[in-house]
Amino acid sequence: SSGINAEYGEELGRFVREEGLSELPVWTSLMRRTLETGSYLPNTSVERYKALNELDAGQCDGLTYQQIETDYPEEFALRDLDKYNYRYPRGESYHDLCCRLEPVIMD
Asked: Which of 40, 11, 8 is nearest to 26 (CA)?
């Protein structure tokens, strides 16, 4: 819920101010909830990176694992065999995610 996100953002902003961390750069994804959380921070250097977005679950996006197991039992079984290398249909794998993140993190 956005009420919980706002409460967390306010608390995080308070912590950053109290600990004197306002000069540190902040990186966020382009996801709405991370942008909202970042808006509560006093930091002046805020960079947004698409590469920091969460794993793209493709056609399974928005589904619970229970729904994936019911609607896509073969995909569910394949994912269980190798979670790191399993690629969601029209999505990405955790390996893909790591490859996407590496250039941003190493920069």
From this structure: 40
Q: In whole angstroms, what is the distance from residue 73 CA to residue 67 CA?
A: 9
Question: By the 8 A CB rule, do 14 and 41 touch?
Answer: no
Sign of the four-CA dihedral 12, 52, 30, 45: positive
From the CA atom positions of the chain, what is the Rg in Å?
A: 17
Furthest C-alpha separation in the chain:
50
Predicted TM-score (pTM) of the model is: 0.77
Q: Mind listing the pLDDT tens digit for each residue in 33-59?
A: 899 999 999 998 999 999 999 999 999
Handedness of CA 102, 62, 82, 92 (dihedral sign): negative
